[in-house]
């Protein structure tokens, strides 16, 4: 049996932490899962408190990130299984959901998931119209028609086929 | 509770991360979205160009606007051969200046001199006909991976490798047009050589490859010829896939093949394929080198090799045999009465393309009788004839089994 000193390295302890979302819900997470997030790891190293409050991440998003972290902390799963979990994880999700996810994983510094989500978002953006992208990213077009025409003229090569074209 | 608006606004770094997965053409196109997006693309760490027509001056315009000082990936693909050399050399020089780490080039060009001393380059992938500068010092101190899918890889390979002190992976898929070549690297871990497009017999290409890579853990050789390739013994080898061409059936060639095989004797997993019409008895030219680390063997070769491995791989656990009509002919029972792997380690045997010949039944009978700890033997018949399969199953089920736990499945 492995005995660990109370002041030993965090990863060696079979402890749990409570993570609270901005909506106030609390999630019980094993420490081995939590430390896969570089930010959470830093917080846990710095303070004794087992309750972490994340003011920027909502319930729904946090639950997804925690599901990801728990899966990846499971030593019983092979790397292949984890990889297929990752693919499954992002497939079929709405662009809006991915947007919250990419932001949360960026904040929490979960590099691997952030990469997978960002890549998925880029894949969705391909072959989409300008208006679609503006809508999904909540972008207000603040160009004057003249300015927009000027950009199109300068980088005409970027619009010479069907991808990301105008309506 | 924060407003949803605040949560949904992505910071510039995150947007750039997303844009880094898009071809540069698309990330430039996002400048039309709004003012904030006007120059966001200039901070994306990757540049990825793919041109079907000629190489346009646009690349250098984009690079002059680009604001990234540490270029992660520079990917350049061009179908047209008529590339403006000056434009190309300028953009490569800029990429080197911007500390490029991963470079992917798919086009026909001559690389500029400055490329040969790129300090930051970690991963280089070449598709097409890339010419290297013929003279000058090569110093690529960070290069770990070199992939060449190049039909005309006009480069002095040993010279190139000697300038890569931390090279770990080398992948050569293309023509063996480099004559004599020493692949010598103390750091190389993974080596793949595939001359698939060139049957050397047919093209009468003469080449010699000598491999001296003492730290190698993974070796994959395809479509080379034993006469032309040699390797110094490697103690660190974990996996080797050796699939070589059909070659002349003579004693000299057989000796080359055996010598080559013996150099791999420390390997843990071996996939070995040698197709020859006739193979001299290994007893004549054979050696007594032992394969002590070998635990998994996949064999598509004359069954003289099967005998050799049963006798010399004392810790073999998994055996996969692929039978073909040529190489099933030379089954001979091992000379030693009791082979260690049969007594202690062999757990699973899988046979593909089982052809129901007397030779194959003899081989199966021998293994079933002598393998004391065998758990599973799976046989995949070549024939779809149900009667033939049923007869085979009936016959095999009557064979004596040295291991009580052994199951036999016929598929």
TrEMBL record, chain A:
Classification from the root reads: Eukaryota, Viridiplantae, Streptophyta, Embryophyta, Tracheophyta
**InterPro entries reported for this sequence:** SKP1, SKP1-like, SKP1-like_dim_sf, SKP1/BTB/POZ_sf, Skp1_comp_dimer, Skp1_comp_POZ
* Name this protein carries in UniProt: SKP1-like protein
Query: Where's the SKP1 component POZ domain?
Result: 15-73
The SKP1 component dimerisation domain, residue ranges: 118-158
Enumerate the Gene3D superfamilies for this protein: Potassium Channel Kv1.1, Chain A
Its UniProt pathway annotation is:
Protein modification; protein ubiquitination
A Pfam family that the UniProt record links to this protein: Skp1
Q: Say what the protein does.
A: Involved in ubiquitination and subsequent proteasomal degradation of target proteins. Together with CUL1, RBX1 and a F-box protein, it forms a SCF E3 ubiquitin ligase complex. The functional specificity of this complex depends on the type of F-box protein. In the SCF complex, it serves as an adapter that links the F-box protein to CUL1.
TM segment ranges: none
Q: Which UniProt keywords apply?
A: Ubl conjugation pathway
Its family remark reads:
Belongs to the SKP1 family.
* Subunit description: Part of a SCF (SKP1-cullin-F-box) protein ligase complex.
* PANTHER family with a match to the protein in the record: SKP1
From TrEMBL, chain B:
The highest taxon in the source lineage is Eukaryota
- Span-the-membrane segments of this chain are none
Q: Which InterPro entries match?
A: F-box-like_dom_sf, F-box_AtFBL13-like, F-box_dom, FBD, FBL13/AtMIF1-like, LRR_dom_sf, LRR_FXL15/At3g58940/PEG3-like
Per UniProt, residues of the FBD domain are: 340-411
Gene3D superfamilies with a match to the protein in the record: 1.20.1280.50, Ribonuclease Inhibitor (3.80.10.10)
Pfam families per record: F-box (PF00646), FBD (PF08387), LRR_At5g56370 (PF24758)
Enumerate the CDD domains for this protein: F-box_AtFBL13-like
Record SUPFAM superfamilies: F-box domain, RNI-like
Q: What is this protein called?
A: FBD domain-containing protein
UniProt source species: Rehmannia glutinosa (Chinese foxglove)
């Amino acid at each position: 049996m492995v005995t660990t000193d109370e002041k030993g390295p965090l990863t060696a302890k079979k402890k749990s932490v409570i993570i609270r979302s901005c909506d106030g819900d609390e999630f019980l997470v094993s420490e081995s899962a939590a430390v896969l997030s570089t930010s959470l790891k830093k917080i846990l190293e710095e303070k004794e408190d087992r309750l972490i409050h994340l003011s920027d991440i909502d319930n729904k998003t946090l639950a997804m990130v925690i599901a990801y972290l728990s899966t990846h902390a499971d030593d019983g799963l092979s790397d292949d299984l984890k990889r297929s979990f990752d693919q499954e994880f992002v497939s079929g999700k709405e662009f809006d959901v991915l947007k919250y996810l990419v932001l949360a994983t960026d904040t929490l510094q979960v590099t691997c998931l952030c990469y997978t989500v960002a890549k998925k978002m880029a894949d969705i953006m391909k072959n989409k119209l300008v208006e679609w992208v503006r809508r999904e990213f909540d972008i207000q077009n603040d160009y004057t028609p003249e300015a927009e025409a000027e950009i199109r003229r300068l980088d005409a090569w970027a619009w010479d086929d069907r991808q990301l074209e105008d309506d | 509770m924060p407003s949803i608006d605040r949560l949904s606004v992505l910071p510039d770094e995150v947007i750039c991360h997303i844009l880094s997965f898009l071809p540069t053409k698309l990330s430039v196109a996002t400048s039309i979205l709004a003012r904030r997006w006007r120059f966001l693309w200039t901070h994306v760490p990757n540049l990825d160009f793919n041109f079907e027509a000629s190489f346009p001056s646009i690349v250098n315009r984009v690079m002059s606007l680009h604001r990234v000082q540490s270029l992660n990936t520079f990917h350049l693909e061009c179908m047209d051969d008529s590339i403006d050399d000056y434009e190309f050399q300028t953009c490569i020089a800029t990429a080197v200046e911007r500390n490029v780490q991963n470079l992917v080039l798919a086009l026909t060009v001559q690389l500029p001199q400055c490329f040969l001393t790129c300090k930051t380059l970690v991963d280089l992938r070449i598709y097409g006909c890339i010419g290297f500068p013929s003279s000058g010092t090569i110093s690529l101190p960070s290069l770990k991976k070199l992939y060449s899918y190049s039909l005309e890889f006009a480069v002095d390979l040993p010279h190139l490798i000697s300038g890569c002190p931390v090279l770990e992976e080398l992948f050569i898929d293309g023509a063996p047009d480099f004559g004599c070549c020493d692949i010598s690297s103390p750091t190389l871990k993974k080596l793949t050589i595939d001359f698939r497009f060139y049957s050397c017999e047919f093209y009468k290409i003469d080449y010699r490859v000598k491999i001296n890579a003492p730290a190698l853990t993974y070796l994959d050789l395809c479509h080379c010829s034993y006469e032309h390739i040699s390797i110094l013994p490697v103690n660190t080898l974990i996996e080797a896939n050796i699939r070589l061409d059909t070659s002349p059936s003579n004693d000299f060639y057989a000796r080359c093949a055996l010598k080559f095989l013996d150099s791999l004797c420390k390997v843990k997993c071996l996939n070995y394929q040698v197709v020859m019409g006739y193979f001299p008895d290994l007893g004549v030219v054979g050696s007594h080198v032992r394969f002590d680390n070998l635990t998994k063997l996949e064999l598509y070769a004359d069954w003289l090799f099967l005998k050799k491995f049963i006798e010399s791989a004392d810790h073999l656990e998994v055996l996969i045999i692929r039978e073909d009509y040529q190489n099933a002919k030379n089954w001979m029972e091992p000379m030693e009465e009791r082979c260690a792997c049969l007594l202690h380690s062999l757990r699973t045997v899988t046979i593909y393309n089982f052809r129901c010949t007397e030779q194959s039944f003899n081989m199966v009978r021998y293994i079933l009788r002598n393998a004391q700890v065998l758990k599973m033997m799976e046989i995949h018949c070549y024939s779809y004839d149900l009667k033939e399969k049923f007869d085979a199953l009936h016959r095999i089920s009557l064979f004596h089994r040295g291991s009580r736990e052994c199951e036999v499945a016929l598929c």
